[in-house]
Amino acid sequence: MSEVTRTLGRFLLLAVACVAFPAAARAQSKIAGSNWQKGPRLDSVRAVVKWVDGLSRTLTEQVDSTSCDDGHVVLVSKLFTDSGNVVRRFSIEGGSDESAGQENHYYDGLGTLRFTFAETSAANGTRREDRYYYDASGFLIYHDERILHGPGFTGGFMGLPVRDPRGAFLAGCSQHDE
């Protein structure tokens, strides 16, 4: 192999790497706040949510409730599985004297977390919504927090990704301890 052929081969490999790797990096990057409402990555998440919501009447539901923090917090967990026993939604709701809320976690057909929607209300009048969007590999691509009313509240649901919904369902209070 001549030196010219080797140099051209290296140049071609470098050119391909420059084109390919930035695309791969973008695939694992977060979405900017300015363009979060549109785009194929978010559309795919919304399609999963729509699909799971459409399946809701055919999903098998398991319910469990538990008291935590010496009875000051009550949690109700719901696990929804499809006909293949894949978890498609995990919901947890609860409250205390200070706040109440609900989290809904949505999973695709492979059981990968794709979306979380959390609503929290606090005794000080605050109402907050949080949305977490995940790509097909479960990587967080966007988080949106909205204070709908009131001064704000730092408590409530933590917004932690629930990647093992069966484990979270069985864990009860320990899943949500700080």
Task: Characterise the protein shown here.
By secondary structure, the protein is of the alpha+beta class. The chain folds into two domains: 1-30; 31-176, no CATH class. The chain has three helices and seven strands. The protein has a seven-stranded antiparallel sheet, with helices on both faces. Strand 5 (113-122) and strand 6 (127-134) form a beta hairpin.
Give a summary of the structure in a few sentences.
By secondary structure, the chain is of the alpha+beta class. Helices cover 27% and strands 36% of the residues.
Tags for this model:
alpha+beta; 7 strands; disordered N terminus
Give the arrangement of secondary structure elements:
Elements: H1 3-27, H2 40-55, E1 60-68, E2 73-81, E3 87-95, E4 99-107, E5 113-122, E6 127-134, E7 140-149, H3 165-171
Antiparallel strand pairs: 1-2, 2-3, 3-4, 4-5, 5-6, 6-7
What does the main sheet amount to?
A: 7 strands, antiparallel
Instruction: Name the structural class.
Output: alpha+beta
Uncertain segments: 2-26
Mean pLDDT equals 80
What is the percentage of strand-forming residues?
35-45%
Radius of gyration: 21 Å
What's the total count of β strands?
7
The tally of domains stands at 2
